[in-house]
Amino acid sequence: MLDLAIIGGGPAGLTAGLYSTRGGLENVVMFEKGMPGGQITQSSEIENYPGIPGEVTGMELMESWPAQCMKFGLKHEMKEVTRVSLNDDKTFKVSLAGGEEVKAKSVIVCTGSTPKRAGFEGEDEFFGKGVSTCATCDGFFYKDKEVAVLGGGDTALEEALYLSKICSKVYLIHRRDSFRASPAIVKRVMESDNIELVLNSSIKKVYGNAMGVEGVLMVDKEGNERDLKVPGIFIFVGMNVNNSVLKQSDGSYLCDVNDWGEVIVDLSMKTSIPGLFAAGDIRIEAPKQVVCAAGDGATAAIKAISYVDSLGE
Q1: Which of 3.50.50.60, 3.40.50.300, 3.40.50.1010, 3.40.630.30 is the CATH number of 117-235?
Q2: Where are the beta strands (DSSP E) in the chain?
Q3: S-S: 159 plus which of 50, 135, 146, 166, CB 3.0-4.6 Å?
Q4: pLDDT tens, 155-212?
């Protein structure tokens, strides 16, 4: 039986593996069907990770993590987890693709979330080359330039305000004539001098060249087209929480989740099920930053050690 099963090999999962093994757990396995590193490896430029001066790619940032995090005995199994469920004896059953099952005393789920794509032409082609889903990560690269933001919820408006402090102008594109965001943040956006609202409009395509995005072609409800010459567009149309491993055979979730499927945890990353923890972007109110995900993983691991110790032999 495993002391701890870690589901997911991004910053949260790797850090959980480092802290749990260094902290004394001897039988810890991280299940990640691909190479460790997580979603951040797709980022083209990162310059806000503490201790890493200058600009690095996400792949470069994560390159040394696996070796360090496995130094104290963490094992990586390239297997896909299909479900985590609870055994009658309060241990956990980790079901793997192919029918294999593993038993664990505790589990940390670090499967993250995936930004929803808007589905317009050129979105995939220029993702990471002018198309972004993280203003905090990439906004600085458009300092004193014009950019576009797509979305109408709290996140889209908050990120538009963030970008308005960096960029010369922000075009906020929304398919409706009103926003789903809270009235307070809508008011702040309306009062911002360098945010232009482009309402009742959708993006037809993003275009550019080998160097990246050159512009965004939009169309309004009347069919009128508008061409914005901007080098970057930020998309905030929601997140898909990767919580499928927690879904049980009857359609319920193993632990409590909110209306968006995010796992409800306390400050110790504990879920509603003893011994089950969640860390990183899968949890409620996740900041969606590498440094925060790593902190979550460390916290969850420390609490998992205490939980396993409390079980005794």
Answers
A1: 3.50.50.60
A2: 2-7, 28-31, 75-77, 81-86, 92-96, 101-109, 113-115, 131-132, 146-150, 169-173, 195-198, 201-209, 212-220, 225-228, 233-235, 239-241, 276-278
A3: 135
A4: 899 889 989 999 999 999 999 999 988 898 999 999 999 999 999 999 999 999 999 9
